[in-house]
Amino acid sequence: MFKFPQDFFWGAATSSYQVEGNNSNADWWPWEKKVGHVNSGEACRHYELYNQDFDLAKELNHNAHRLSIEWSRIEPEEGKFSEVEIKHYIDVILALRARNIEPMVTLHHFTNPIWFSKLGGWENKKSVDCFLRYCDVVTRALAPYVRYWMTINEPTIFISHSYMFGFWPPQAKSNWRARAVHDHLIVAHIKAYALIHKIYKESNLGKPAVSIAQHISALVPCLSSARNRFAVYLRDWLYNFEILNKIKHSMDFIGLNYYSRQLVDTESWWIGSLLWDVCKKNHDPVKKNSLGWDIYPEGLYQILLKLKKYNLPVLITENGICTADDNLRWEFVSDHLKSIHRAMEEGVNVKGYLYWSLLDNFEWDKGFGPRFGLIDIDYKTQKRTVKESAKKLGQVSKTGVLP
Ligand code: FCB
Predict the structure, then answer these.
(1) What does the pLDDT look like over 15-28, one tens digit per residue?
(2) How far apart are CA 296 and CA 299, in angstroms?
(3) For atom 4 of ligand 1, which residue has the closest CA?
(4) Which of 48, 160, 221, 288 could be stapled to 228 by a disulfide with Cβ–Cβ 3.0 to 4.6 Å?
């Protein structure tokens, strides 16, 4: 039996583009059509159906919910802010508050307004000021109802997928361009952090809690050679901790997104090999999700211990599995909660667990195939069906006890 604190946050996370539908002012929208990618289209129609979805979250005993604000709705044209959309997000947040669910708000979750991309997106130096102007409007509007903020979701994934591997718009494959984006995102976070705090102070609202949601993979040397261990050390620093180290004085907690491990097996001392090679020989096989990612709960425990040095509370802002096997989903959740519990017993201050995701949704370049949700979506009818794993997690949320 594993007991969690009384005030632990239990809930799930979503992002606007993945669930709302019809985000036609975001850069992904024309890009999907241009490259012939499956369209996000109506997604889960959460923009209209949020009350119904939050009723289900409430039935599942969630007391926290992470959502993102769609910048391209708030500011569809440069400098023109939509009162209607601002009001929409106030309504969404009040809908959570009415159910006693703590709203946790992400300001940037991968998508950008089309006008912003046309200016060069995050490569442009001006991006930081554009982002801050948007943050200013949103924070002033939502501050009375929100305490927890994440400025930017997974900067390292955004940089690598959009600017290094070329998977996502603008499909760049350039270390130079990636570097510029990296630098601007860091400055954007640090300045947004200060701005959010300033607004709360001016409005006598008490202190907000501001962070990013950082993607961290467990890095495991396959065969324990010196080269593999060096590669692990290098990757850990570069992908997992470099950004956290740069912003460590501008975080009130650490938002952690954890999914999987990399089994590191390098072929040579070439830098590309050190940075990217993974085991192809099926050493140490473990169960996988439907996208082939290794399931590795132990990694969450290891990472949490590594985060201890920052001396900050940690919030699990994402952790989840895409699978058609709902028993495996429950096994995944239960094993990861055990890892969290173990780290807490060893002194890590974990504040809550937000499963990714509340709903099956649009999984970026993978489309609608992967099913991460606690709630199944029938995309033809938009019917919601609560999965058994969701009910089991709901019991844990209710009692604070994992059997
Ligand atoms: C994370 C993203 C989230 C979702 C999950 C599966 O990297 O933050 O939007 O796609 O992966």
Answers:
(1) 999 999 999 999 99
(2) 6
(3) 363
(4) 221
Q: Which CATH architecture has domain 2-402?
A: Alpha-Beta Barrel (3.20)
Q: How close is the Cα of 28 to the center of ligand 1, in Å?
A: 15
| Nearest residue to 144 via CA among 188, 81, 194, 89 | 89
Q: For a substitution probing ligand 1, which of 363, 365, 371 has the most ligand atoms within 8 Å of its CB?
A: 363
Beta carbons within 8 Å of 183's beta carbon, 6+ residues apart: none
Other beta carbons within 10 angstroms of residue 49's beta carbon come to: 18
Give the residue, by CA position, lying nearest to ligand 1 atom 10. 363
User: How far is the centre of ligand 1, averaged over its atoms, from the C-alpha of 224 (Å)?
Assistant: 30
How far apart are alpha carbons 291 and 371 in whole angstroms? 10
Residue 170: cis peptide before it, omega within 30 degrees of 0? yes
The 8 Å CB, 24+ separation contacts for 200-204 are 200/143, 203/143, 203/144
Pocket, ligand 1, Cβ cutoff 6 A: 15, 18, 153-154, 157, 215, 257, 318, 356, 363-364, 372
In the structure encoding, which two tokens stand for residue 265, read together? 């097996």
